[in-house]
Amino acid sequence: MKLAGRGWCVWLCVLAVGAIGRGQTPLKGLGEAGPVELIKDGFQFVEGPAKTPDGTVYFTDIPANIIYSLRPTDNGWEVETFVNPSRHANGLMYGGNNRLLACQMDGRVAAYDLSTKSETVLAEGYQGKRFNACNDLVVDRFGGIYFTDPRFRAPDPWPQGVEAFYYLSADGEVTRLGDDLAAPNGIILSPDEGTLYVVPSMQAEVMAFPVEGPGKLGDGKVLVRLKQRSGSSNGGGDGLSIDVKGNLYITTAIGIQVVSPDGAILGVIEVPQQPANCTFCGADDRTLVITARTGVYQCRMPVPGHQFRRE
């Protein structure tokens, strides 16, 4: 069932149901991931989960043009509409100062006040042209934002003419960092923020770039070539998360591929629907919330997720 309504909608209590045919997944050197459980289905296409300091997880439904909040309760989860319309928001992240940062596929990076829901546009173009369709983002310790701008949902021809990834500094300056990847999509920093990872959607190679300063990258290298589903030879990934040990959790066509900082694939967590993104949450940061097509799922993990602490 689609959750409808604008502004403050009716709260719905959602109970996580049992595992749906997915048992424990061994992850080499880490332990076992627990069963994948459904939290709520019936959305159109969900993406961009992000935890805020109070434990709430926000996620997006791109075609529905909505950002939802997912709040833990003693009996499961409660879902509420946070923003409608959302300008087709995709990736989200807590940005400090009570703000939820959002990549809007209508060509903007914006911030929402979590109390008032007021929206502030942080960037809406580069060199006088709107972005294609901002996709995913990560904020660094300096308050700058790395974000991707591929082709998906972009006008034709693409406003920027290329698919690229960028850095938005805390003072509002936008720098293009790269435009030679096939549909740069997921993006995240290592826990020490010394490495920037970029996951393209239309090539199998995940890239790792040394961070030499805010918005300044060294030469990138291939971290890993993702495992492929049958019949595919160069499929990429989507969104991703990272744990305290620096292992990446990359959503792909075959599930969530867990990749070590040195590029070893430690295991693949299968999800009933193809996953698009994931984030760690819970009081111990060991619950992985997964957005996968029309459903939101959860899975207990052997290692806590890394949280980018922002005041």
Write the layout of secondary structure elements.
Blueprint: E1 12-14, E2 25-27, E3 31-33, E4 37-40, E5 46-51, E6 57-61, E7 66-73, E8 76-83, E9 89-94, E10 99-104, E11 108-113, E12 119-123, E13 125-126, E14 129-130, E15 137-139, E16 145-149, E17 164-168, E18 174-178, E19 184-189, E20 195-200, E21 205-213, E22 216-217, E23 221-225, E24 237-242, E25 248-252, E26 255-259, E27 265-269, E28 277-281, E29 287-292, E30 295-300
Antiparallel strand pairs: 1-8, 2-3, 4-30, 5-6, 6-7, 7-8, 9-10, 10-11, 11-12, 13-14, 15-16, 16-17, 17-18, 19-20, 20-21, 21-22, 21-23, 24-25, 25-26, 26-27, 28-29, 29-30
Q: How many domains is the backbone divided into? A: 1
Helix percentage range: under 10%
- The CATH homologous superfamily is termed TolB, C-terminal domain
The CATH class turns out to be: Mainly Beta
CATH topology label: Neuraminidase
The average pLDDT value, as a whole number, equals 92
Number of strands: 30
Q: pLDDT under 50 segments (min length 5)? A: 1-21
Total count of helical runs of at least 4 residues: 0
Radius of gyration: 18 Å
Report the biggest beta sheet as strand number plus sense, adding barrel if it closes: 5 strands, antiparallel
SSE ordering: EEEEEEEEEEEEEEEEEEEEEEEEEEEEEE
